[in-house]
Amino acid sequence: MQIAVIINHQQFTLEVQPDDFLVDTLRAQGLYSVRRGCETSSCGLCTVWLNGKPTLSCSLLSFRAAGQHITTIEGLRSEAEEFAQFMAAEGADQCGYCSPGFIMTVLAMKRELVNPTEADMIHYLTGNLCRCTGYQGQLRAVKKYLGV
Amino acid sequence: MKYVGKALPKTDALAISTGKPVYTEDLAPDNALVVKILRSPHAFARIKSIDTTKAHSVKGVECILTYKDVPQVRFTLAGQSYPEPSPYDRLILDQVVRYVGDEVAIIAAADERAANAAMKRIKVEYEVFEPVLEFEQAIGHASVVHPEADLSCNFDIGMDKARNICSSHILAEGDVEQELKKCDIVIEETYYTQAQAPAMMETFRAFTYLDHTGRLVVVSSTQVPFHIKRQVARALELPASQVRVIKPRIGGGFGGKQTGSGEVFTGLVTLKTGKPAFYIYNRSETFSCTTSRHAMRLKVRLGADKEGVIRALDIENLSDTGAYGEHAPTTFAVCGDKTLPLYNKTRAVRYHGHAVYTNKMPAGALRGYGATQGTFALESTVNKLAAKLGMDPAELRLKNLIKEGETSLAFHGNVLGSSALDRCIEKGKELIGWQDKYPRKQLPNGNIRAVGMAVTMQGSGIAGIDTASASVRLNEDGSYCLLIGSTDMGTGSDTMLAQVAAEVLAMPPEKIIVHAADTDISPYDPGSYASSTAYVTGMAVLRAAEDLKKQIITQGARMLEVAPAQVQFDGQQLTAPSGREISIKKLAELLVVGTGNCQLVGNATYGSPISPPPFVAGFVEIELDPGTGKFEIINYVAVVDCGTVLNANLAKIQVEGGIAQGIGMAMYEEVRYDDRGRMKTNNFMQYKIPCRKDVGKITVAFEESYEPTGPFGAKSIGEVVINTPSPAIAQAIYNAVGVSIASLPITPEKVFMGMKGAMIHAKQSDETSG
């Protein structure tokens, strides 16, 4: 089946199977920042935005994205790099495998939450697992980025 | 120092954070065959028949391989220096399957759909055997996991395969029974540590292809490219020179990727078909078909005098290596080697026991590598001694711990070159507020706050065995290339090693191009494991840079027409006493272009006869609800002696990450099976790694020592940081509610049942006495 989607502000017509998940469809388009880390919607690696909201692309059937706006980190390059500098300054990138999904959630949080407390931030970001950092450096980076 | 110790960002930080295509999957060729594995549904069985006819008829299927199609050479997946101590006990595919998930058939197809469809059409008939599922019943079990005659070992590892004993070990100094008899106090306890999954974010994956000369190229997310090269060569019966292994960026390893995984499967497919082949382990396979930490049962006897001086230590260990013996003898040895030397007032020590085969997923390497298990057992026992003596556990440590310049019975005759562990303990007490908080405080809401502590050591590389080489090349434009074979799995070791070279060459690290790792290009390195990279590879890099610097000065002196000793080199300019100078850039250019020249390359190889231990003093404050047993971490303080800190930020994150992984092991994580040997914890819903709400606050501090044999005084940091949470948290629980937990993980349920048990016990003794 064919679907029309807008990926990173660009219109695409894609051929997908009914059981294709969005993560695979996006990777097939060369959007390699989007990764599958589990099969149970638990880890957050595959986080993209669907109409501006963080969404797990591993559990969204591709055809359900038809007609909608998808954003990956490739579409937020300069903003992502700005935050990534804060991560780098803390050494909090480590293996980097969870970083794109994490950054997508951080950038969404920045838009959604007004003056979040530390607990608000931790709650918002909980769905993004990381095995390297113990989360402390990520939190330092987020707080410095948000200037709190 | 100008560059060493600085909190420089990782050289790959921006690329990896923003999702650039630098990992294995991103680099796989589009035309690679998709490999899938049919796996055993039985814990122990023999394949009676296997019919692949229908599977072959699926469109797009290129090749299906069974045990009939593989080389009959047993090998080990353990990534260890040759000759590997792990037994050669597996085939790529075997007629006997030894755990649920063991490989039965390899399917390669043009796409995933075809591979999955073909897998469903393979018919297998099994003769099912009684599996060995309880490791405490493995020795002498009626079922023998490895009866095969062609299993072999490079060393006498004490294998007795007829009794399911994979390896045996004994280390004994003095007469431990005699010394225990002489002691005023003897503490005895049996501890159980669970299998833990590495759960790195990037699952296992590898692809292979044949290059233009017909050699097999393996691109793998691995910590051990050179070991994978040798392993693949053995398993596929190729000369090692016909195999090239490339490691791109790695999405975490934690020791898990010190064991080979899919390389032999894709390699075989590529050899059979001539085509590129790619295999990704999904999360479920990563949990249930790779390796985990060895589960252990540790029986500890500790003897001390009335003053609290520890005089005798005896640990009997039983380690569960699962279906294959990857890392079985070595994790077993490390468990004793990296714990017993801590307490050196002993007059006798003994450490002994077996690693046993069972019909479960194999165990393997995981951060801490036996020391983590041993630390839980020994430190919990030392904490018990403190409780029995009514002594502050921190004071008890200071009284008994090995100090700089001292040796220890289980230290193989070595002398401790550096230690700031006493300062780590003092600093940790201060940071947690030990004086005020020990042992517990009742809160107005009924909850209890309590503190606990533990100390630990690890090693830095494998003494006398693991040896790394490094090359530093002066490029024609005056920049440098640093070639290493160690594997930055996210730790930032590439950056940290560039800092080491930069310090020697007085050149900013960003001017040093780091290349790692490709077995055709990189100098030999065992890979990143055993806490070796900063210390072993670090020393190789330091010496290679010094070698190059010497050559630069010699060549500069020649051009300046003075003696080398007269040349000043500040990294940019070489200056003669007359003031005449030549830039490094010009020197480089002159050395590369034209006749009679020679491009300068500094080389060094380093292997250490010792493995200097880094130390951690870990302190934890918990808050516990006595109504439910539920508890959480308020603050975890880790004070670390890793010698000289080479990169302040990266070292700190290593500590924070290791403590969090240790908290996971202490409180949440456990690989579990059902009564048929099927893993119940094969996903993140069932196997819970800490999320950011679960770790509490982690406070890190460093107390530097100076290790005379390390690069700029550095020791390791990667593993030692995972060891303290389990015993420290267990002690905090004890201090809170008087319940001793001797089996991990420490769940609220165990705490609650312990409290209930203690109450019943108290009630019964009341009744008896009343």
TrEMBL record, chain A:
Its EC number is 1.17.1.4. It comes from the Bacteria. CDD domains: fer2. InterPro entries: 2Fe-2S-bd, 2Fe-2S-bd_dom_sf, 2Fe-2S_ferredoxin-like_sf, 2Fe-2S_ferredoxin-type, Beta-grasp_dom_sf, Diverse_Oxidoreductases. Residues 1-76 form the 2Fe-2S ferredoxin-type domain. One of its GO terms (molecular function) is xanthine dehydrogenase activity. This is Xanthine dehydrogenase subunit E. The lineage of its organism: Bacteria, Bacillati, Bacillota, Negativicutes, Selenomonadales. The gene is pucE.
TrEMBL record, chain B:
Gene3D superfamilies: Aldehyde oxidase/xanthine dehydrogenase, a/b hammerhead, Aldehyde oxidase/xanthine dehydrogenase, molybdopterin binding domain. SUPFAM superfamilies: CO dehydrogenase molybdoprotein N-domain-like, Molybdenum cofactor-binding domain. The keyword Oxidoreductase applies. Residues 18-130 form the Aldehyde oxidase/xanthine dehydrogenase a/b hammerhead domain. GO terms for molecular function: xanthine dehydrogenase activity. Its EC number is 1.17.1.4. Keywords: Molybdenum, Oxidoreductase. The keyword Oxidoreductase applies. It is an enzyme of class 1 (oxidoreductase). Pfam families: Ald_Xan_dh_C, MoCoBD_1, MoCoBD_2. PANTHER family: ALDEHYDE OXIDASE 1-RELATED, XANTHINE DEHYDROGENASE. This is Xanthine dehydrogenase molybdenum-binding subunit XdhA. The gene is xdhA_1.
